């Protein structure tokens, strides 16, 4: 049995969807432990592109696909995703399981997410506007509503009656909106969802732990990335959950010693959507070239992603924060046309101080200290064996591995399943 965690080592969009899909071949179950439909996991196969927002990528391989208690669920968006998959003849009903204690994204969460961003003005986080932050805020404030709360209409109504006055007060007096949320309207909409949701609901901690006891292989699919983690990311420009591997324990109800491997996914360069610090960001034509070559546009919102060189300081930090046992490097093909490629190994502050870790607060601009590597200047997508990779690419990988203190178990040179090289399968599955 192997329980493998797949985590993003940067700011998300590292290619987790593709690699989870690839690794799912050997898995019996795939589980999401945090986030909601803010995620955008792109998977390509059979000449089709699937973008999954909430449902784990395992569903495309007909494996048990679990949305754990640590995730948040927007029913309307979930049903749209289920319908899309059904239209593609993917038997979602047979495989999808959702924790009955996952929290619901409510209409006021979506609205408050957008209104708060407006109020923040230039300081906006750049959220996906899906209501994720406000849903987690209410969960921690004990004002949230869980999926199981829909099973008892009286109880659900009472929860809403207790919660809505405060929401309406905020709406009217703080946000100055001439609108009110009605208990009746929300009851009609959300209680109507329950019949459709019920067949998927269960105690997913029990389900996962039983599977572990039976010796099954399980993948835990992280969403977003390490530096969007609410505790360890570039706060406040983060998402509202624990994206790190540590989030699996609380978000799926699984003990830490059950997780045998942690595979960190890192893009061969760096991208970020939304606001916040990004030391290696390239605001010039090189950044633009990376964006074009890598088709770096958000899978959820379509926003252009900010692009920059590989940041070894951050990925090394990520290896530590997640207990990463091996790394997968993705999108190497995007660098095929570069004559030289840079890696940031530390940062320098304006007063000359050198940083070898990303500091938690830095008001000044940090200048990355780069080392430069020769590019390989040839196409790599067709390559299926490690030994056939260009020597310059192999030395780029070796240098990354050295700088971040992690071995490389997987290499991705394109979006398709076949465009994956596995030099070290033993580092992934026991
Ligand atoms: P939220 O998760 O919608 O609250 O957004 C908070 C921050 O996380 C914003 O910078 C978003 O752009 C970013 N974010 C959320 N989900 C993803 C994702 O799947 N990929 C990359 N960035 C994300």
What's the gyration radius in Å?
Answer: 22 Å
In percent, how helical is the residue content? 25-40%
Question: Ranges with pLDDT <50 over ≥5 residues?
Answer: none
Task: Give the number of DSSP strands.
Answer: 20
Counting helices, strands and paired strands, the structural category is alpha/beta
Q: Which shape, going by the Cα principal axes? A: globular
Strand order of the largest sheet: 9-7-5-2-10-1-11-15-19-20
Write the layout of secondary structure elements.
Elements: E1 3-8, H1 16-23, E2 29-32, E3 41-45, E4 48-52, E5 64-67, E6 72-73, H2 75-87, H3 92-95, E7 96-99, E8 103-104, H4 107-120, H5 132-140, H6 153-174, H7 183-197, E9 201-202, H8 204-213, E10 218-221, H9 247-252, E11 261-267, E12 270-272, H10 285-293, E13 306-308, E14 310-311, H11 312-322, E15 326-330, E16 340-348, E17 354-355, E18 367-374, H12 391-404, E19 408-412, E20 420-421
Helix pairs in contact: 4-5, 6-7
The protein binds inosinic acid.
Structure description:
By secondary structure, the chain is of the alpha/beta class. α4 packs across α5 (132-140) and α6 packs across α7 (183-197). Strands 9-7-5-2-10-1-11-15-19-20 form a 10-stranded mixed β-sheet, with helices on both faces. Strands 14, 16, 17 and 18 form a 4-stranded mixed β-sheet that branches. It has a two-stranded antiparallel sheet with strand order 3-4. It has helices at residues 16-23, 75-87, 92-95, 107-120, 132-140, 153-174, 183-197, 204-213, 247-252, 285-293, 312-322, 391-404; strands at 3-8, 29-32, 41-45, 48-52, 64-67, 72-73, 96-99, 103-104, 201-202, 218-221, 261-267, 270-272, 306-308, 310-311, 326-330, 340-348, 354-355, 367-374, 408-412, 420-421. It has 12 helices and 20 strands. The mean pLDDT is 95. Inosinic acid (IMP) binds next to α5.
